[in-house]
Amino acid sequence: MIKKRCGWVNTDPLYLRYHDKEWGVPVYDDDRKQFEFLILEAAQAGLSWITVLRKRENYRKAFSGFDFQKVARYGKREIALMMKDAGLIRNRLKIESAVHNASRFLEIREEFGSFCRYAWQFVDGQPITHRWKSLSELPAKTPFSDAFSKDMKKRGFKFVGSTVLYAHMQALGMVNDHLTNCFRYQEVRRLCKPPRLVGVGR
Question: Which residues pair with 153 in a beta bridge?
Answer without folding.
Answer: none
